[in-house]
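We emphasize that the prediction below concerns an isolated chain of 76 residues; any contacts that depend on oligomerization or on bound cofactors are therefore not represented. The input was used exactly as deposited, without trimming of termini.
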Amino acid sequence: MTATVIDFMEKTRKKLPPYAQYMGKTIQIDNMAGEPNYVGRTGKVTLVDDKGQLHGTWGGLAVIPGEDAFHVVKGR
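Result of the prediction step, given as a token string:
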């Protein structure tokens, strides 16, 4: 979902998907359940799917809020 879509949804009062506030932000993965190779990876959130999972440029796996630990990287 792009920023333009989010802007449109907010203006038309459509409900935003869970965790849409992370769209376009850079996050760092602190812990990903069962995936130790993803710890420390950073990337930009490019999609929030209908399940609220975050997809981005850190690799092929989605970050699952509430199950995986991550934080927004300030200044990016």
